[in-house]
Amino acid sequence: MTFKDLGLSAPLLKAIREQGYETPTPIQEKAIPVILQKKDVLAGAQTGTGKTAGFTLPLLELLSRAKHKTQQHKVKALVLTPTRELASQVEESVRLYGKHLPYKSAVIFGGVKINPQIAALRKGVDIVVATPGRLLDHISQKTINLASVDFLILDEADRMLDMGFVNDIKKVVAILPKERQTLLFSATYSDAIKKLSNQFLKSPKLIEVARANTSSEIVKQAVYHVDKTRKRELLTHLINEGKWQQVLVFTRTKHGANRLSGQLEKDGITAVAIHGNKSQNARTKALADFKKGVVRVLVATDIAARGIDIDQLPHVVNFELPNVSEDYVHRIGRTGRAGNNGEAISLVCVDEDEFLANIEKLIKKDIPKVWLKGFKPDPSIKAEPINMGGNRGARNKPRGRGRR
């Protein structure tokens, strides 16, 4: 199947070709025709499978088909996202795919001055991508008019629930027109998401291209058992011996992210931390430098990781396992995107055994357990030793699936 077979118009097909895409992903293939039928959609798919284009493309198509076209730009579509980074990337997708269409878009989030956003809204926009909190600021200041909204998209809805945005979302939805098309996209598919969909969607079409809470099959996963005090040493060894040039590393806390990035710098590895306490300018620069290869390692907390969308990111490392099992799926979904292979490594000490067991229960699979020679952990742990030579590096594959 091609994008043309999905019923998209020439301007969108041209933009898709210019981005180098030829065939739709499974979520796009299933979601786009349903959205074009103007039905509400509840869609669940693994992160990195093309959900953004799955709603951006049909949204632009429906706007272009609308009979009430006018030169006056009013907010006709609203996309809500949990984080600033994700909002920026969604709005970028709107601009890229809509470059041959006459629609204007704007991105709205906190952490930056509000006046430039007000100025953009006053000029008139058709599509607004926003985080809930800053959008409510604009609503309270009457700097945005949502009376003409025909489309509401809740992106990464599971994460918005995790971050406590449900009441903010309800406040926004309460002032939107009752007659609208609502799309809810989520990386994981939980009972809480179903409950949310029952409140905001009308007889939605359920679209699910992967089993709930599954980890991507094209991501090679491994657990490296190591003593807690030697995690940083092991990470440095893996990066240097494997000659890794682009690595996304997760920590549980902001302080931990700062500390680890500083330690890696002392080890001669360029690194930068990204988390909620960083200014938006600092976060934007850190992500840009990471994408360009100016820094080799981006150390992130979970809240900052949504929106880190790099098609060929080769390595993700869990320096610390998340205490919320679903976050593991989100984390490793940063690699293995757009059909590319990826590697997700978790550095696990004995204190994290319960977290690991809960993760394996969630994803319904055992993650291969290994330890690297020279970093022998507790001898009671059953894991396969491997030898990482300087010439073999990242090509080493974990052998065996021994249990703890």
Largest sheet: 8 strands, parallel
Radius of gyration: 22 Å
Based on the coordinates given, report the CATH architecture of the largest domain.
Answer: 3-Layer(aba) Sandwich
Distance between the termini: 45 Å
CATH superfamily of the largest domain: P-loop containing nucleotide triphosphate hydrolases
Low-confidence stretches: 389-404
Number of helices: 15
**What is the assembly state of the chains in this entry?**
single chain
Count of domain modules? 2
Report on this structure.
There is one protein chain. The protein has 404 residues and is an alpha/beta fold. The chain folds into 2 domains: 205 residues, 3-Layer(aba) Sandwich (Rossmann fold), CATH 3.40.50; 177 residues, P-loop containing nucleotide triphosphate hydrolases (Rossmann fold), CATH 3.40.50. It is 38% helix and 17% strand. The chain contains 15 helices and 15 strands. The protein has an 8-stranded parallel β-sheet, with helices on both faces. It has a 7-stranded parallel β-sheet with strand order 3-4-2-5-6-1-7, with helices on both faces. Helix 3 crosses helix 4 and helix 6 packs across helix 8. The longest helix has 15 residues. The protein is globular. The chain starts with 9 loop residues before the first helix and ends in an 18-residue tail after the last strand.
